Amino acid sequence: MMYQLYQAQQDLLNPFRLFAKGTGAVLRQFDNGRPETFPLRQFTAALELLGSSGITHARPPFGFTTVQIGNQEVKVEEEPVFSTPFGTLLHFRKDVPVAQPKVLVVAPMSGHFATLLRGTVQVLLPENDVYITDWTNARDVPVSAGRFGMDEFIDHVIRFQEEIGPGAHVLAVCQPAVPVLAAVARMSEQKNPATPRSMVLMAGPIDTRQSPTKVNELARSHPIAWFRDNLVDTVPWRLKGGGRKVYPGAVQISAFISMNMKRHMDAHVEQFRNLVGGDSELADAHRRFYDEYLAVMDLPAEFYLETVKSVFQDHDLALGRMTHHGRPVRPEAIRRTFLLTVEGERDDICGIGQTSAALDLCSALPAHMKRHHLQTGAGHYGVFSGRRWAKEVYPLVRGLFEEAAG
């Protein structure tokens, strides 16, 4: 019922937002920068803020058209390699004379689109042949496509690795660290030729008993029935996924915003000042952030509830109780895949020790094939995006790829 009311509200407000955005763009042309047009500039800034304030449900573009490799600018094309109703294996294809390491970037299915990892991909692109899991918004997946839970997530990781082929690497960011470790364990046990040469787990909840954060405590604060009854809703019938049970992205983003309401209000006040003052660089940075932040996707209810219960409440992987289609997940079966775990010193989502727990679980790996990095000064996003990722974390990832290939 709540989803129906939310969608009705969005349908009502969207025309006003579009009108505000269009009107603001027209009025901006009459601003000559003189003092007498200052009120017009203020009105235009207010219209732009109103026009860009709404939640959207479509994936923003990655925006990669070229990449600099040495002294050469190389064209980048997005190439869908394999698709299911729930996700696409997206390849950033480049024409380069020398074969580069193939790497699958597994994006979180946690309320935002894969474009949240744009900064991760941008750093990888010059030296690697990059693929990414481009998950579909669950509200766009027909009920006839069936369920999508933890087993199906693991299935997708395995199938995507098989499509890429032998000799590739896998890099998981945040939530998918658990299903990726499970997928590599199952592939290793089955001696799958596409088992990745190396696995990088970044800020992922392998064992949330270690240094629990507010996110972990929230997941443990209610029984799973509470999450099902209060946070799961039904997609309205007029949408492609009508009738599908989901954890709505709008619910999650509303919770995130309410947790940091003052920071978001201050950011929009500052954006008003930037627009009025003509600071286009800061205004563009604000637009880019909120265009991505307010683009949300719904999660299949099965996957959301199974993740809460298995990962955050029951700690199945850490305690050796996780299964995949009824068969045990055995990280100790991993014997030939190099492993790097990365954590952020100031991560308030995934606490210190939660990701590095994978090192002990992969007990059959020799010591020289597994390592850990604690990134000083980095919060959750700083592990895989921004200056520290580019300058301090990525060189370790590159070194892992090289050693695994050798």
From TrEMBL:
Xref: InterPro entries: AB_hydrolase_fold (IPR029058), PHA/PHB_synthase (IPR051321), PHB_depo_C (IPR009656), PHB_depoly_PhaZ (IPR010915)
Name of the protein described by the UniProt record: Polyhydroxyalkanoate depolymerase
Highest taxon of the lineage: Bacteria
Start and end residues of each PHB de-polymerase C-terminal domain: 203-402
NCBIfam families: PHB_depoly_PhaZ (TIGR01849)
Pfam families registered for this protein in UniProt: PHB_depo_C
Gene designation per UniProt: phaZ
